[in-house]
Amino acid sequence: MSISLSEIRPIVLVISFMSNSVFAQTDNYILKWKLKKNDSLIYKTEMIERPIIAYDDDSFTLIPPIIFVDTSHEKKNELTEINDSIITKLSKKREGVIDIEMVKKSNSKNLIAGQKIGFNRNIILRGSIYDNGTIESFYLSSRQKNLLALLFQLPNKSLRIGDTWTLDVNLVSMDQTIICDSAKRVNQATLVNVETNGADTIAYLRYNVSEYFSGHFENSLFREQNTTMNIIFSAVGKFSISKGHWTYYDGDIVIHSSGILTSDMRTDFHLELPK
User: Fold this and answer.
1) Where are the domains of the chain?
2) Dihedral sign computed on CA atoms, order 69, 112, 149, 38
């Protein structure tokens, strides 16, 4: 039995169309915050600080292992907590815009219940992002904008596994009294993997941001002094593509500086939905 070329061609076209459709559905992902108008989302937030015992001056780029394990209970036992009642609230009052407020409170149950008692006190962060994860509150100070971007910024583009993008951050900041001798940076967020869990689709993300500065302080009132600063941010997170929010986020920022300001500190960040 022989098959003519005219009979084979339609079969090949059908197979090719089916393959392209499958890849288009499974290989490209868009991460967006999904919050209905006038709805809100609450995260229990941890910011835990500890000194660094040892530091390697050559460790400019720090890439964390891909381990997505909730270790918040271990951190509570071995680290000193800055505050155990920090609440981050995401709310949608304007179309397409998510307002974010991170608040230090002694009574977090009131906020989780939706009450606004004392919400204007002890505000750590206040800013806004668009649904696509880009920053709406462009006017924020660098410190506020950095925190907003590190915890809540999304890529604003279609991704495939392995794709990378950059975060809108500026971790190292110097004024005009500092003369730069050398500076370098790494700014990379990566879509590591995507898994389906029932009706939910989870994106696994990894963040690796490093900024290094070396220079000297020049001022007529003081002698010339060398200064260096190295800031390294590492994080892993699980983002629900279906629900449009973090289901898990765990990161840390390490600050090492010498010269004018000397510091060797690490702050751990953890976001968790109330159970």
Assistant:
1) 31-272
2) positive
